[in-house]
Amino acid sequence: MTSPTVRMGARRVPLVLPDRRDPRLHTAAVIISIHVIGITTLGFRVSVPQILSAIVTAAAVDVVATLRKTGKLVWPASGMLTGSGVALILRLPAMPAGDYWSWTGWHFFAGIAGISVLTKYLIRFRGEHLFNPSNIGLVVAFLVLGSEVVEPLDFWWAPLDFWMVLAYAIIVGGGIAITRRLDLLEMAVAYWVTLAAGLGVLVASGHCMTAAWSVDPVCGTRFWTVLVTSPEILIFLLFMITDPKTVPRGRLARFAFAATLGLGTTLLIAPQSVEFGAKVALLASLVLWSPARGLFDRLLWDRVPGRSGLASLMDLATERRRGPLAGLTQGVLASSFLVLAVVGIIAAGGPARAPLDSVAPAQVIEVDIDPATLPPVEIDQSVHSLNLDVDDQFASELAANLAENLAIEAEAVRRGDDTLLPAVSGERRLAELQTIIAGATADESRVVSFYHFESLYLRVQTEGQSGAALAFEGTGTVELVTYDASGEEQSRSETRFASTFVMRLFDAERWVTVHVFTTPSG
């Protein structure tokens, strides 16, 4: 059968069309399915133009590079897969969910996808590309551009509803089918088991991290559960580390490569206290480990090609026994390695020990707030994207909490007593009020703000991936009362306000006000 050709100028160029049996097409189908479910039902903060920019650019680079190398026009299955993979992981911090047709930051998606594909042709060793293209492209982008410009996909996507279950089914079902066909499923399992065990040690040592989808630090069992079941980690182990072109050739070598990669991932995640760092560490572990795949092939050859990696490892250990003390020696070496691994994980995790952002209040005073005096709270859809149950009652109670915080802040300023503030204020808000009290003490007068709300709108406030906060956008009137040093009122005025009150959960139980943005409206 004659191969198809296309005319390019004065010559005809062979045309290589897609093969429906190509596993890259099946992988792309899984990734595109997750894109569709994600942006339509799971609140993915990515748009169709951003996704297409990555795919089209990566495909174009792949076509041109392949044409220059082989003289053929080849269907860019690899390039399109790289582009869709980049678009699945890459996010812009300010990008909202539901803006399906936004062109915001499309050039980041196009540029990172294009550079990712180029690494396949520019960074080579013994005729093969050294890194998974999307993996190295994303890692370089995150490290060079930083969390203020780009960030990775969240570990936690959405509550476990029908659509989230469907996403899991597509990822796990598709991943198992593809890796079994490529004889790489055992490798994926070895990585997951090692990572789960390593993260268990990390959790036992008291590890915590902050995340944009959680209002309090993610610690303990919750941290372990989120990571070992994270769709992003499942995608990483089923579709990224199992790239056939960038793994060792032998079964035993693949098994050992994946298991040690799992340990390496844990060691890189251990010191990270912010989700951005943990996710970059996950991706970077493969970049750091990929150049060693040839070493695994040379050191761990397959004794029996048909046996599994674990069985081959046991065969190799048995074959190398020499003398009556060989078994004891191997046991001591294995035990020593495990002890060193555990100690290394615990030591590496020192910077991320619990508790995080904890400030013990010096004093607590009671104030009487009547919830009936507060307006009904309108809840933004973004609040439901958190791993937090939010309903009208919760919103009403949080609004009363805000009113209590503001009343205690006012009393602290009136008294000139900043020891009352840590119970209700934190971060920038605490520093601002401490400055006000210090300044008021010097001139013996204090201006105190009393807020009266007419409307309240609750939404999510995030700053990169350093932890979520809840924010009330409120309108109403504020009374500005001036007191002298003895606490006697000197003057009073009133003005309207439109303000945002940012609240964060401290110590898993205290909602404190961490910032207030106020714009007088009249």
Topology:
Layout (H helix, E strand, L loop, with lengths): L4 E4 L2 E6 L6 H19 L6 H23 L2 E2 L2 H13 E2 L14 H17 L1 E2 L2 E2 L3 H13 L5 E2 L9 H20 L3 H20 L3 E2 L8 E2 H9 L2 H10 L10 H19 L5 H15 L3 H7 L9 H11 L6 H23 L28 E3 L12 H24 L11 H17 L1 E18 L5 E17 L4 E18 L3 E11 L2
Parallel strand pairs: 2-3, 10-11
Antiparallel strand pairs: 1-2, 4-7, 5-6, 8-9, 11-12, 12-13, 13-14
Quick structural overview:
By secondary structure, this protein is an alpha+beta fold.
Please, could you describe this protein's structure?
This protein is an alpha+beta fold. The chain has 16 helices and 14 strands. The protein has helices at about 25-40, 50-70, 75-90, 105-120, 135-145, 160-180, 185-205, 220-230, 230-240, 250-270, 275-290, 295-300, 310-320, 325-350, 390-415, 425-445; strands at about 5-10, 10-15, 75, 90, 125, 130, 150, 210, 220, 375-380, 445-460, 470-485, 490-505, 510-520. Helix 3 (about 75-90) packs across helix 4 (about 105-120), helix 5 crosses helix 11 and helix 10 packs antiparallel against helix 11 (about 275-290). The chain starts with a strand and ends with a strand.
